[in-house]
Every structure is written in C-alpha cells, then in structure tokens.
Amino acid sequence: MSTARMRKIPMLDLRAQYGSLASEILLAVKNVLESQQLILGPEVKELEREIAVYCHCAYAVGCASGSDALLLPLMAFEIGPGDEVVTSPFTFFATVGSIVRLGATPVFVDIEAQTFNMNVAQLASVVTERTKAIMPVHLFGQCVEMDTVEQVARRIGAVVIEDAAQAIGAEYKGKRAGSLGDVAAFSFYPSKNLGGAGDAGMMTTNRADMEVRLRSLRAHGAEKKYYHDRVGVNSRLDSLQAAILRVKFQYLEGWAAARRANALRYEELFSEKGLVLDGLIVLPVELEGQTHVFNQYVIRVKRRDDLRRYLADNGIGTEIYYPVPMHLQACFEGIGYKQGDFSEAERAATEVLAIPIYPELGLEDQEYIVSAIARFYKG
Ligand SMILES: *Cc1c(COP(=O)(O)O)cnc(C)c1O
C-alpha cells in the first residue's frame, strides 16, 4: 500500500453541491408547494425561457427526461418503420433506444479516436434514401463536427436531432449546443452539468412548427386540453423540478468554468508525472473552435480494469462510459451488427475510464488521484 494518506473521492459529489444551495432550493420547493401548481405551470415556463436563451434558441419545451427529449422529436418528425436514423454506437442507451422504440432502424458510423464523437467523414457512405434523421451525440460535453453533419443532412433532406444530454453550454464555432440542428435533447438527470432532483429533460429548437408539435406530443397530442390531434405521450415537466433547476441554473456557468479549470489542472499534473509521454494514458482533447464543458473527464488507459480496482482500493471513484457499444447490445442483436464492425468504438469500450471532474473537486483531490495513477503504473 501507499504511504500517502487515504482520501475518499467519489466519482461525483452531489452532496457538496446541495450543501451550498440548500436554503435556496428549499425555499423554491416551498414556494411551489404553497402554490400547488405542480405540473408545468409558471416555473416550467420560466425555465423554458431561460434555457432557450442560454442555448441560443427561439424555443425550449420541457419534458420528463432526456430520453423523452430524444423520443419526442423523432415522433414529431413521424419517424418509424422503414426509416433509418444515423447515430453513434458509443453513447448512452437512450439515443438508440428512442430510434428502435419507434420501429425505425439505427445505422451507426464509428467514432473518432480523439474525441469519442461520431466520425462525420463516414456519414456520406452510410446515408441512403431511407435516412430520415442524423442524431449526433455531443459526448462527454464536446460537440460533434456539426458543419459536416449539416451538409450531409441538407443534401439528402434529413433532419438533425442533437443528443446534447451531456453538453449544455458547449460551443461549436461560437454557437451553443442545442442550436446546431433542427431539434436538440437535453437531460437534467442528476449527474448532468445541470441536474435536477430526479428525472427531467428539455428540447430546444429554432423551428416554430416543431415547438408546437413538441408541446402537443408531450401532453398526449392535445394542443387544446381534451382535443387530441395526434397520439402523444405523458411527458410533462414537474414544477418542483423546474423550480429546483432554476436555482441551479444560476450557477451553471460557474460550474462549467470549474470543470474546465479542473481539466486543465489534470493536464498539468499528468504531464508532470510523465504518464502521457510514456504512452500509458491518453488525455481528452478540446478541438479547435470548440468549448468543451466536461460533463465527464474520460482518459484512455492501459490495463483499465486493474487500474480501476487499484483506484477503488485507494478511495477514488471512477466510472466506465461505456463498457458495451450499442451495436453489441443483446437487445439490438436483430439489427445485424457484429463484433469488429466499429473497431474504434470497441477499442474505446475497453480503454476508457472517467475520473472525477465535478466542480467542487479540489487541487489536493486531483493531486491525490494523479499520484495514485502514477503509482499504479510506475510503482
Ligand atoms: C443522460 C443521457 C441521455 C438520457 O437522459 P435521461 O434524462 O437519463 O433520460 C441520453 N443521451 C445521453 C448521451 C445521455 O448522457
């Protein structure tokens, strides 16, 4: 064992965040409860307005989760059996689940080694006349190369639905995630950069027609209560969640800045130890023209599972996003992909390790984490 004193560093410390905001959050909750406007209501309207402005969009529509924020736009574009949707095999399940639930077929392109995002150079070779949508996933908080996505989509007449669940505030050539396609999905799952006290989600768009449809679809397809134009779902946003999210939203920019500062500090600390030069670990990169918001800080490492165990023994929480690429998930076997089809995604699945990056993480925590990793490889 090490001579360093054992610390406890969780993968994510939401209690630290709550501790500093408790009185504001409790007051917001109290106000909603006293108003008894529990579903949608003024808090949801205000949050929608704030998120729309923040994401450089004309409209935002709240819903029950990030997963629904992906499903509802696909429904709004009437995507279903016989249609193909191109996306990344290296993502959270919801991206692909939303496509398959509607009877459409997911079509994958491999990822780039450097960013873990979809390799847009491969888009042109997989689109067909059946391609109705492209779903880029801004993984870990950095945007996909959207210029190419938009070019290909425009050429074939497909729509673009951004999975921006991990990327609120991320920028691509000065434009915010959420404003880079036809509709975008955001998640307020507690571990996202803006996290609620449970499930919640939001869709952003600059299209007035989509705003109307999405509002209708999240409320059983009724634009006017009890008069149903189409079959939607129950995916409303709770006022309690909206009120809590509005408190936290005021701190979002500061948290993103702290995450970015932590990422820079990791870079310095890892280079000091020589781990990068020795090829033992590969650090995440922020590409030219991008602002990465580091929802996750994901390194590539040798002997990943042993390292993860060693870090756990030293009190350090880590996570693997994601251990199984989507084309190899049991439930998608029928689609016909096999091992070897997307080698970069498959390699990433065996090498990635997310280490703590949350805003409250201190310098000493980071030094402790980097020292532990250096000790694992170099003794
Ligand atoms: C979190 C996440 C989702 C789903 O969001 P939920 O709010 O958990 O339903 C979708 N896509 C990606 C990439 C995510 O990280």
Protein architecture, described:
With 379 residues, this protein is an alpha/beta fold. It folds into two domains: 17-249, Aspartate Aminotransferase, domain 2, CATH 3.40.640; 251-378, Aspartate Aminotransferase, domain 1 (Alpha-Beta Complex), CATH 3.90.1150.10. It has twelve helices and 15 strands. The chain has a seven-stranded mixed β-sheet, sandwiched between helices. The longest helix has 22 residues, at 14-35. The radius of gyration is 21 Å and the shape is globular. The mean pLDDT is 96. The structure holds pyridoxal-5'-phosphate. The site of pyridoxal-5'-phosphate has 15 residues, from helix 3 and helix 4.
Topology, element by element:
Elements: H1 14-35, H2 41-54, E1 59-63, H3 66-76, E2 84-87, H4 93-101, E3 105-108, H5 123-126, E4 131-135, H6 146-156, E5 159-163, E6 171-172, E7 175-176, E8 183-187, E9 201-205, H7 208-217, E10 222-224, E11 227-228, H8 239-249, H9 252-272, E12 281-282, E13 290-291, E14 297-301, H10 304-313, H11 343-351, E15 352-355, H12 363-378
Parallel strand pairs: 2-3, 2-4, 4-5, 5-8
Antiparallel strand pairs: 1-9, 6-7, 6-13, 8-9, 10-11, 12-14, 14-15
Helix pairs in contact: 1-8, 2-8, 3-4, 3-7, 9-12
Bound molecules: pyridoxal-5'-phosphate.
The site of pyridoxal-5'-phosphate has 15 residues, from α3 and α4.
SSE run:
HHEHEHEHEHEEEEEHEEHHEEEHHEH
- What is the distance, rounded to the nearest whole angstrom, between the alpha carbons of the first and last residues? 10 Å
This entry's quaternary arrangement is single chain
Total beta strands: 15
> What's the shape?
globular
- What CATH architecture of the largest domain would you give? 3-Layer(aba) Sandwich
Query: What's the total helix number?
Result: 12
